[in-house]
Amino acid sequence: MSATRRTIGHKEPMSVTVDLVIFTIRDDVLQVLLVERGNEPFAGCWALPGGYMRSNETLDGAARRELYEETGVDVGRLHLEQLRAYGDPGRDPRGRVVTVAYLALGPDLPAPVAGTDARSARWTAVASALDSGMELAFDHAVILADALEGARRRLEYTTVAAAFCVEPFTVSELRRVYEIIWGFPLDPSNFRRKVTRTEGFLEATGERRMLESGRPAALYRRGGAEALVPPLLRHFSDG
């Protein structure tokens, strides 16, 4: 036996969860789905929906399952992608838990139905959830703030804004998505010029929609491009 004794560190049990930041636009406001926790820890507090990953699931599979259980909406209707992982010690009083947060985006999603471990579920204005002193469970306020900035950044570099629109849609409806998520108005003519000249962003249907005033508006669906080239940067949006 070697004179040098090796100390093997204790392996702390660790669990993996998924948390979902589900954004939609309802009543012209960016809203997030929150659930009221029915169990400890944080019983009675509002939180992002989510749960433990099962032993036979992938991360994406767990996110899809939780998404359907919390919204009843087929994931095929939504844009779903990983945001990032959160694993700071102490983030969950039950023990060492690493969560992988997912960002889900969809147009005017229906009223949610609370899952089995939640008292209730509701859509909440993102601004209210972050700025009104609402205390979210765990580190969900941090995750929500990261998701909001992530969504804003994705609007600059990808075509994901169209995921908030029910097809077919007008350029004005798409512009309103940007204005709601970025939080400031955009010049209509400049926006139209940029998005219609970006290859693969929009695909014209050849149809028009009658408006209350003015000329009928051309209708579009999302094109095949995923990236915006050039990007539609926030600080150059009216330039």
UniProtKB/TrEMBL annotation:
Pfam families: NUDIX, WHD_NrtR. Gene3D superfamilies: Nucleoside Triphosphate Pyrophosphohydrolase, Winged helix-like DNA-binding domain superfamily/Winged helix DNA-binding domain. InterPro entries: Nudix_hydrolase, NUDIX_hydrolase-like_dom_sf, NUDIX_hydrolase_CS, NUDIX_hydrolase_dom, WH-like_DNA-bd_sf, WH_DNA-bd_sf, WHD_NrtR. Residues 13-148 form the Nudix hydrolase domain. GO terms for molecular function: hydrolase activity. SUPFAM superfamilies: Nudix, Winged helix' DNA-binding domain. Keywords: Hydrolase. Belongs to the Nudix hydrolase family. This is 8-oxo-dGTP diphosphatase. It comes from Marinactinospora thermotolerans DSM 45154.
